[in-house]
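Figure-free illustration: sequence to structure, shown twice.
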Amino acid sequence: QLVESGGGLAQPGGSLRLSCAASGFTFNLASMSWARQAPGKGLEWVSGISRDGSDIYYTDSVEGRFTISRDNAKNTVYLQMNSLKPEDTALYYCALGWGAGGRKGQGTQVTVSS
């Protein structure tokens, strides 16, 4: 099970930190990703992290603004989002594995608006 939290309303230029609590599998053996779906658009992969955190990747549009991390002791993966833009508005999911196609949680809504 994957349970996302931390979404909400932020102003442009603001920050939010998303969390994803994992259970039901061996978290420290799993790579994890964040993905998002904006209104009227398809699912987009945002970032991924390897099981030990040594490999991290971002989609170009968030590189330098978002930071993915994980705490294997807490079975949790995070997404720190800084310098938020209105185009970051979306339902954000954490996903098992690399990419956006794996098992996902219910999502947490992020809205960036003044």
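We now fold a second protein in the same way, so the two outputs can be compared directly.
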Amino acid sequence: QAQLVESGGGLVQPGGSLRLSCAASGIPFNRYVMGWYRQAPGKQRELAARISSGGRTSYYADSVKGRFTISRDNAKNTVYLQMNSLRPEDTAVYYCNGFPALDYWGQGTQVTVSS
């Protein structure tokens, strides 16, 4: 059974940084394209970034390009999201999942950017 456990969120001031982690189990992690998704209050969930199974290529939504960096460690079945220069509009619950997404979603981790 798939399990995705996100961590690393919190409250940060505008311009600050956070590093999110997602530990995966129950899936052949090194075969999956993995993504970080986010859902802001009152909005639909959107893909923020994704990374190829081998970690060599990545994609970023225009809204996070140049500020966020996705990476993965296949030996640890973990995917990361380094978020720099955070803005209030980055406030959301952040989730990791495959791309395309699996039916199962973890609990997510809340990121709040506010002064």
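Summary for the second example: The longest strand covers residues 18-25.
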